[in-house]
């Protein structure tokens, strides 16, 4: 899919749950600012497992995963995005789950 930057709409998924929530929000802010400076339309989305309404927004072209820790890096969110056939950044659910599991990734 090839879309001009000025027409591309990106949802930056940030926040999440757990101890790394604050750093995730900070990362999301940095990513949002950088994408806006690059000329993209950006939506900042603080999501949690019980609040993912942004995934229903048909105007979003791509979801930028900027979550850290559980739910963001462990494959859970990636599996939800895959199940909904949504385009997103980063590794898929299997690779994310494996990388998050320090024992399995040795």
UniProtKB/TrEMBL annotation:
InterPro entries: Dala_Dala_lig_N, PreATP-grasp_dom_sf. SUPFAM superfamilies: PreATP-grasp domain (SSF52440). Residues 57-91 form the D-alanine--D-alanine ligase N-terminal domain. GO terms for molecular function: D-alanine-D-alanine ligase activity. This is D-alanine--D-alanine ligase N-terminal domain-containing protein. It comes from marine sediment metagenome. The lineage of its organism: unclassified sequences, metagenomes, ecological metagenomes.
């Amino acid at each position: 899919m090839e879309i001009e930057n000025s027409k591309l709409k990106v949802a930056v998924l940030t926040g999440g749950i757990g101890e790394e929530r604050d750093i995730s929000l900070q990362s999301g802010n940095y990513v949002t600012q950088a994408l806006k400076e690059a000329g993209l339309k950006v939506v900042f989305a603080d999501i949690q497992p019980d609040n993912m309404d942004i995934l229903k927004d048909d105007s979003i072209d791509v979801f930028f995963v900027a979550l850290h820790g559980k739910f963001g890096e462990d494959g859970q969110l990636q599996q939800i995005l895959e199940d909904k056939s949504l385009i997103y950044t980063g590794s898929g659910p299997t690779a994310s789950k494996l990388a998050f599991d320090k024992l399995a990734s040795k």
